[in-house]
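re: ur question from yesterday

yeah so i grabbed the chain u mentioned. its 356 aa long if i counted rite. heres the sequnce exactly as i have it in my notes:
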Amino acid sequence: MHPNLDLPSTSSRRVPIDIRRLPWVRPLAADYAYAFERLAPFFAGNPADLAAWRETARRAGQHPRDRARLTAVIAAQQERRQAPPEARAAASTLADPRGVAVVTGQQAGLFGGPLYTLLKAVTAIKVAARVADEVGVPAVPVFWIEAEDHDWNEVSSCRVLDGEMRLQTVSLGTPLGAGEGPVASVRLDPSIFAAIDILRSTLPATEFTSETLERLSEAYKPGFGMSEAFGRWLESLLGRLGLVVYDGSDPDAKPLVAGVFAHELESPGESTRLAIETGRALVERGYHAQVVPHADNVSLFRLDGIRRTIHYRDGQFVVGDVEKVSPGTLREEALSEPSSFSPNVLLRPIVQDALF
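ran it thru and got these structure tokens back, copy pasting raw so excuse formatting
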């Protein structure tokens, strides 16, 4: 793919694909696309219904949030990454009380990660443009970089096709701290040079290869964090189309959602209970549970160099299966030091909505 992502010529054709023909597509995804009425009780609105989009935009506009502070955090991130002016202008639109965000995201990974990462970002751009046109509100595509997971093996390699259309794997080494703490804390080391050299020898030669490798080399450098490198690469590809890249691990943003963290600790296990109940309801209708959490899980991690789970047992919290903490103490810590906490997969969408 050309790194400039030029728009297709007028001679190109779009051919729809019925995903139900694909053997790996699960019934939940198929019905979401083709029989939404079966899933309606599990969603706030039908994505094919323009009225549902208008109602969502109305609710988003009424939700209280510190837009000025959020846009300042994003602007600082963009400045560090030297984001394109179009991306910075789009981010400033989030300060508009009428503005809405179309949010997608993915883990920070080597050379952009899987192809669907790019497809997610492009889809957010297209949906935001359509929302702005049809709903009549400023709409900004936002890509949330999830960089507080600690599974280095999930993000330290990528697979590409060589000149013979064979799938090849390109991997990084193991920088200091890899696999021990959040990916956001891992700094690329000189092994990135070897990975780029392997990529150079693997990719087929096209008129785009040289520029693509040059841009990757500018984004993925020793000393850059994996999250920063990933963000720079995304912005180099799609920033000029108004994509706002947001690093979810930024400690400066955590005070904006300290109340969400505190609420989770005030009602320990409630989000887990709701997820379990919803999963059961999906299974009863012939679908699959999206997540299967442990009943005593709290939907937060505590960060202190590494990411520790939090459980609620016998009226107190247990951090990392060892440290016992009283509910009041942990709640006060969440309010005073929110950067020491990270939402898990259940709470992350709520944090995203609270911010955007």
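noticed a couple things. Strands lie at 100-107, 139-146, 157-161, 167-171, 244-247, 297-303, 307-313, 316-319, 323-325, 341-343. also The longest strand covers residues 100-107.
anyway ttyl
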